[in-house]
Write a structure and sequence with these properties.
By secondary structure, the chain is of the alpha+beta class. It has a single domain (about 1-69), classed as Arc Repressor Mutant, subunit A, CATH 1.10.10.10. About 60% of the residues lie in helices and about 15% in strands. It has three helices and two strands; from the N terminus they run H-H-H-E-E. It has helices at about 1-20, 25-35, 40-50, and strands at about 55-60, 65-69. A two-stranded antiparallel sheet has the order 1-2. A hairpin with a 4-residue loop joins strand 1 and strand 2 (about 65-69). The longest helix is centred in the N-terminal third of the chain and has 19 residues, at about 1-20. About 15% of the residues are buried.
Length: about 70
């Protein structure tokens, strides 16, 4: 559980930091940066969206979901 909490904290901080410089974050950004499986990332991101910690939008150009705080 502790590792899971740490991973979640790292991911939310990464998204916040990118949001501060007006960058959105995609699953692939987190996967490449932290070598976490995309499936695991997607579960965590959906949890954050459901708890209103982050916002999800769809990027038509890249055809993927993007996340911001």
């Amino acid at each position: 559980m502790n590792d899971s909490v740490n991973i979640k904290e790292i991911i939310i901080e990464f998204i916040k930091n990118r949001s501060e410089i007006n960058e959105t974050t995609a699953t692939r950004h987190i996967h490449r940066r932290f070598d976490i499986s995309e499936e695991e990332i997607e579960k965590i991101l959906e949890e954050f969206v459901n708890k209103n910690k982050i916002k999800k939008t769809y990027d038509e150009e890249y055809q993927e979901n993007r996340f911001t705080t």
